[in-house]
From TrEMBL:
The record marks R78 as: Transition state stabilizer. It comes from the Bacteria. Catalyzes hydrolysis of the D-alanyl-D-alanine dipeptide. Binds 1 zinc ion per subunit. It is an enzyme of class 3 (hydrolase). It comes from Aphanothece sacrum FPU1. This is D-alanyl-D-alanine dipeptidase.
């Protein structure tokens, strides 16, 4: 159990709504649908109403200060079944990268890979007290695009399982390009924090508002969004 999962949830009942996608950039096709994730009629582009409003606020702030720059939404709502699909997919990918099959792995080797997977993915828990963040409709994975529509280089890919995913990975670098990665990550963080979000301490692209991780990071006693569906 992660420390943030100790935070009690007092579900406020606010609905999930569709993100107005015309106001943002999106990946097409959606990255997890492309891998075969089944959303069973729901959309990865749902969020809680207040979370959508806050995301729009972040977008307005960004465009007022950096005209032409835009938020790219990589992922938002994720049913627990999709969380399960993605952790299984990631486990299988790591095994494959090692040129192995699961049957060739010892229990200890499997555990080591699961540990790696759960470093960046939340456990697909069905327990209402410990929902995966994206299953609450409060979490969103984003990056930025520039005025030409190109994805701004943040010095790492979303969902990358490496040290580079740490938000401050480039903070101390003396290399100008790497300093620029850090500045871009800081810009992303700043527009989101201004709008009320908090950032995942280990992932530069993950932000949430109102869920357990947000409550933990912002020192609130309770979270107000639990699992949806
Ligand atoms: C891996 C990334 N897409 C992500 O969303 N990670 C968080 C921790 C999650 O699975 O909720
Ligand atoms: Zn995320």
């Amino acid at each position: 159990m992660k420390p943030y999962q100790q935070i009690p949830i007092s579900e406020c009942g606010e609905p999930l709504v569709s993100i107005p996608l015309e106001k943002f950039a999106v990946m097409s096709p959606h990255p997890y649908e492309k891998l075969g994730a089944n959303y069973q009629g729901k959309s990865p582009y749902y969020l809680r109403k207040r979370v959508v409003n806050a995301l729009l606020q972040a977008q307005t702030f960004l465009q007022q200060n950096y005209p032409g720059t835009n938020i790219l939404i990589f992922d938002a709502y994720r049913p627990v079944a999709v969380q399960q699909f993605m952790v299984d997919y990631t486990f299988a990918s790591v095994v494959k990268q090692q040129g192995l099959t699961p049957e060739q792995l010892s229990e200890a080797e499997k555990q080591a890979i699961w540990q790696q997977v759960y470093q960046i993915w939340a456990v697909p828990s069905e327990n209402p007290a410990t929902p995966p963040p994206h299953s609450t409709g409060a979490a969103v994975d984003i990056t930025l695009i520039d005025e030409t529509g190109a994805i701004i280089d943040m010095g790492g890919q979303i969902d990358e399982m490496s040290e580079r995913s740490q938000p401050n990975y480039y903070a101390q670098s003396i290399d100008v390009i790497k300093q620029n990665y850090h500045q871009k990550r800081e810009l992303l963080k700043q527009i989101m924090i201004n709008a009320g979000f908090s950032r995942h301490p280990g992932e530069w692209w993950h932000f949430s508002l109102g869920d357990q991780m947000w409550a933990w990071e912002t020192k609130q006693a309770i979270a107000y969004y639990g699992r949806k569906f």
